[in-house]
Amino acid sequence: MQDLVSGYGEVMILRDITFAVENEIFAVLGANGAGKTTLLKTLAKLLPVASGTLAWEGEDLTPLPAYDLPQRGIAYVPQEQNVFPDLSVAENLSIGGLTGHRSRAEKLEEVYTLFPRLAERKGQAAGSLSGGEGQMLAVGRALMQDPRLILLDEPSAGLSPLLVDTLFEKIAEIRAQKGVTIIIAEQNAVKTLQIADRVLVLSLGQTHMLRSAKRLSRKKLMEAYHI
Ligand SMILES: Nc1ncnc2c1ncn2[C@@H]1O[C@H](COP(=O)(O)OP(=O)(O)O)[C@@H](O)[C@H]1O
Ligand SMILES: [Mg+2]
Questions:
Q1: 13 within ligand 1 shell (Cβ under 6 A)
Q2: Domains of the chain, with CATH numbers?
Q3: Which residue from 14, 37, 80, 202 has its CB within 8 A of the most atoms of ligand 1, so it is best to mutate?
Q4: Ion ligand 2 neighbours, Cβ < 5 Å
Q5: Would the pLDDT of 227 be above 60?
Q6: Is this prediction's pTM over 0.85?
Q7: CA distances, 92 to each of 24, 59, 121, 125 (Å)
Q8: How far apart are alpha carbons 37 and 151 in whole angstroms?
Q9: Ligand 1 pocket check for 30: Cβ under 6 Å
Q10: Which pLDDT tens digit goes with each residue over 83-107?
Q11: How far are the Cα atoms of 9, 140, 150, 201, 220 from residue 48, in angstroms, in the given order?
């Protein structure tokens, strides 16, 4: 994205955001209300691009509707309401598997290997899963699309520290095994920095800093969160 501006109706939230992702885990950090969800929604084409450019693999995404993104290798995991509560675990995953070239069964097997808990609960309604299991299902559904880019919005929200550890280990594993690029928005900066390659810190809808995760000191990060 280049000089991207977006928001809700007349109210612009993101101002002049510029970055390019490579094959990496790219973290979007920032305090509550900084614009992380707005950024991911704009990337997912759920909010219009007011100005600037948005492209993926050389193609301009601006004119495309959100439903065209899965077939272009982009999977979006929203912060909330990211599973169909009345459908079973297996049905949720199957819906994710409608795109791509590989068979659904093969992908399903991979997701169940990565998240054995989902295999144990395949017949259970998604709405009855625990918070951690629900997040695993949402990530699993995204993986069923065989994506080249996953947009993950605050997967750790509402999870206990132990579950956050497990989920982040899985995210790092997905990155390592599949070579998929991951853009992850998080409030949990400390954990995210452990798996991220680069970090964009947003503050009031603007880029506060963009740098390698290794080069981001705790002091710098704290400064960003206090603006
Ligand atoms: N639907 C909406 N309409 C108007 N403003 C919104 C809407 N959703 C979020 N905002 C505003 O956009 C800003 C950024 O919110 P958000 O992107 O959700 O932040 P974050 O995900 O970093 O917590 C906040 O000021 C918030 O109030
Ligand atoms: Mg958010």
A1: yes
A2: 2-83+145-226 (3.40.50.300)
A3: 37
A4: 36-37
A5: no
A6: yes
A7: 27, 29, 12, 9
A8: 10
A9: yes
A10: 999 999 999 999 988 887 889 999 9
A11: 9, 27, 19, 22, 32
